[in-house]
Structure formats: C-alpha cells, structure tokens
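User: Second chain of the day. Same drill as before.
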Amino acid sequence: MNRFTLALLFLAVSSGFAAAQLLPPHKDNLFAYPIVLAVEDGGDYRVVDYSAQRDINDRDQVPERRVHNQYISTGVRRAQHDLVAETSAGKVPHIAVGTSRGASVIVVYIHGQGGNRRQGANDYTFGGNFNRIKNLVHSAGGLYLSPDFVDFGERGTAQISALLSIYMRASPSAKVVLACGSMGGAHCWRIARDPAMAERLGGLLLLGSMWDDGFFSSPAYKRGVPVFFGHGSRDGVFPIDTVKAFYRKVRSASPGYPIRMVRFEDGSHGLPIRMTDWRETVNWMLANAR
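Assistant: Same format as last time:
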C-alpha cells in the first residue's frame, strides 16, 4: 500500500437493537427533516418541504459554500486521512475517516459527474451534511470512505469494489452502506449485481440518482438489501416521476421489501445530498439488513 496507514481500532457491535441504533445522535435537531407535507405507505414514502431561504440562505454563512459553524464539528478531522490504495484495479485515491480494522460499519459516498473524493469529505458544503456523516460513523467505531475513480463505467466500478475488498477483509463483520450521488448510482447498481459484494451490503442510498430495472435479478435484491431514494421534485437530470415509479415497482413486486423514498418538494438535482437525514436512514438500513 502507498500512504495507507490508519489507526487500528476495534469496536464489537452486537446484533439486533444495538445494530439498529449503531449511529449515535449527532446534531439531530439541526438535521431533522423540517416539515413533512405528506406520508404514504406507512411512512416509507414522505414528501418533505424545502425552502431555499430556510435550508440554504439561513443555514449557510456563504450560500452553498460554507455552512454556519453550529452545523459542524471539525474535531473529526483528526481521524481523517487522504490515502492512495494499490489495488488489483490500479491506484485508488480516497479519503478515509475512522476505524480501519474491526469497523462496526463501512459507509461509502460515491460522487457524481464533476465530483471527486474531496466532495464527500468537505465539512462546509451541502449544509454540513458530509461533516455529520463523518462524525456519525466515527462515533460508532465505523469507517467512512470517499473515493476517486476513473469513470462511471466498469473500470470505475472495479476500482471501488477493489478498494472495498481491502477494507472489508479488515472488518469482516461490517455491513457496507453505499451512498450514491447522481451518476454515482451507476456504480451502486453494478455493485449490487456482484454476489460477493451483495453478501456484505447493508443498504443503497440513491441521492438525486438513477434507478435500475436490472436490480430485480441482482443478488442484492434477492437478499433484500434496503434501498433509499432521496429526490428533488424539480430534478432536471433524473425525473422524479420515473424514480417514484421504480419505487412503486419494487413495492409491488415484493410487498414488505425494505425500500423508502423522500421527495423534497421544489428541490433540484443536488438537494438530497444536503437534506437527507443520514442517521435516520443508515440506522433504518442496518435494522433491516440481513
């Protein structure tokens, strides 16, 4: 490995309720959904109010560039490392936060078009939401990863899978939760088709991202891996009606399947990355993962 040294920590995590509540509270009142306008499917589908004034202008010191300080806790940077892993698919630069061995959970952010590994570790953008997930995972004795990759095709997926394989071997009991922004969803759906990876998947978060009809024949679907869609109603890249139709299709094909969707009313393409409640979603996934 090149520049691949992290503090080695261990946290034993029991199953059941403890696993369901693995991520402890962190600024929950600041990051809770503001106003729920509508609820369907017993709470699995929610429409959440979005206001640019409240959720961007009032929340950010510099809109879309720097959040107000009360939303972040930067001490987590002491557990953050910018690394390069030598893998079977080539060198994979990535940012790692937390526990490299014996991690309780592995959460991975896969960026979209125009992003990079630094996007998923930026404390100040997206309303401080990346800072929150770093703190949540670190506090739980877990590992958070934000990798670079060469493209959104097979080569990029191979790099992410190879990187995950390294960390999965070091944390054999950890479930892997993939959070996919926009085009990053292409990697998440491919990984869901890999039997070895699907065995360890704890959840798929699609944030302003795509759907995949091939999911129904995937090992991840057969294992009942939880799926979450966060989507803006004004998304101009991936139409929300198509995403909701896929959500409905999964529920119809497999009643009781662990799938949820949050519609951010009047929100645009990137908004779910800012607004999704990481703690609620990841803990729900871990409670339903097999």
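The radius of gyration is 18 Å.

User: Great, on to the next one.
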